[in-house]
Each structure stands twice: as C-alpha cells, then as structure tokens.
Amino acid sequence: MGGRAPKPPQGGGKPGGREKDGGEWKPRNTEKRSDDRPAKGSTGKPGGRPGSKPGGKPPGRSGDKPGSGHGDRDQRGPRRAGPGSRHLRPQLPVAQGNELLYGRNAVLEALRGQRKLHRVWMAEGVRDDERIAAILKLAEERRVPLDRVPREMLDDATRGANHQGVGMEAGEYQYVELAEVIGGRGTVLVLDHLQDPQNFGTLLRAAEAAGVAGVIIPEDRAVAVTPAVVNASAGAVEHLLVAATPNLPRALEDLKASGRWVLGMAGEEGAADLFGADIPTPAALVVGAEGTGLGKRVRSMCDLLVGLPMRGRVESLNAATAGSIALYDLVRREGASET
User: Fold this and answer.
1) Mean pLDDT over the full length of the chain
2) pTM for the whole thing?
C-alpha cells in the first residue's frame, strides 16, 4: 500500500540508536567505541562484572585506590567518604609492632601496669565516669599523649568491637620466663591449648583476683594474650605473670619438682569430686581446651583428675566457669592450711 515509511525511532545516528540498512532499521553496533576501548560496563568477555577487569575487584571495594584502573570511578577520583567507605576515612596511626588496646578497664589497667605506652585515644563526646577520670589522670601522670578523635575512627580501628570510647597504642605484651612463674608462691594456672579469647580472658581475670603465682600457656595452637584477651580479662592480665612454653608436659614436670600437685579439670566419670578430694597445696590447676578437654599426654602427667558435682540438669560447664570455681576452691584450701 502507499502509506508513509515508518519513522525511525529517536536516537538514530547516536550510539545506542538505530541505522538504516536496505530499507530496514537495525540496531547500531555498540560493542566498540571509536577509540577501540570496550564500551562502558563491558569487560570484553562474556559474564564479566560491569566496570571491572577480568578477575579483579569491583569498583569501590576495599583496597581500590584512586587511579588504580578499577572502573571509571577511579579515573574521576575518590568519592566522598560515606557508609561503607571506611578505607577513605582517616585511620589511627598504630605503629608496626605495637598493639591497639581498647575498652575502659583494659586501658586503665594498662596505665597501671608495666607496658610501654605510646598514646591514648578518646572518642569525642565520650561520657565521663570514674574510669574515664582515672584514665585522664594516669595518662597525665605517666606523660602519655591523649588525643580526642571521632568515634568512627575507633570503630574502624577495633573492627566494631566494644571499645567504650577509649583506645590505646601500647607495646606488645611481655611474657615472663617459665622459671619466674614456677618460683612464685601459690597456685599456678596451666591452660592446655585454649582457643577462645573470651574463655581465656575470663580465666585470667579469675586468676588475678585469686592471687595465683602465674599462668602457663603453650606457645602454639593456643590463643595468645591479644588485645581481645586483654579486653575480656578487663585488663587483669596486665598484672599477671604469664609464661609461654614450647613443651607443656615438661613444664608440668617442673611444677611437680617445685612441690606442687598437678590437678587436671575433667568432666568424665572417674574424676574425683573437687570439693571432697584431699588436695595438698599449693597446686597447679590444668584446664583443657573447649570441647576436647585435656590432651592425652597432659592428662597422663596429672597427679589427680578432678571435676565439679553437677546436680542440676545441665551436663557441663564451660572451661572458664569450671576453672574459675576450681581456682577459688584452691585459694580456700591455701588459706585453711596457713591457719
């Protein structure tokens, strides 16, 4: 029929429009720009992520820097910092080899302890209390610089941990020699490959409160005294003697040679009731790892396996709770033997 030819859609003659070919309108080829670069959003390979190189990171992810070539965004310069853009915010300058302690109790006890201290950071607008006042006073007395910083900087540096508005740059925790712990007076706490920082910190807090001679841990396959452990112990570990040994069974032999009985916390049948057992003091209390308990060789080194009476419906207690109860029972026995 003699009707008018269909009108080309808008956009003809422009990238992404259509062009006429033998009376028919076909999509314009947009696979390549005039400068032979891949079109925006194309990787040049099927299934590629828009705006990224094959095998690379998508733009805007942590680790991308302006000018690194990850997408067009980098060529325009960094975006303004916002939610999810932590890598663009200022960071706390903690020197390599130092540790970032956090939490009011942890920082306060570190100020009272023996570590080398470098700087205290306090969040702007932090609510004052007795601990904050004590931190400010001790930092001034020990001439430790104190800076007020945005709370977000502490959030980033502690990876969202409960820092309570306070952080501190300090030197690494200093372990002592094994002989110093064994030569002390009183009960010694031995930890057989604990893995959980919270359990470790809770036991250290109980050990310091009970006045133990010291704590012995393995050098490998066990949690060390990290900032998370310092926080979990409420800073108590700053006042403890902690020795790390490569050979735990040999350390138990040395404890026996010092005149201590070695007690192993065990929950299985056949373990003596801690409260009814005749236990000479001072003693060495060995607490096993979460779930697996005492290792076979360590168990064989114990003079006595003890457990707590379970009169309720729960079948067991975690390592931190059971160990803390046993420590205080040994403290009670030590007091009774001195009177």
Assistant:
1) 80
2) 0.72
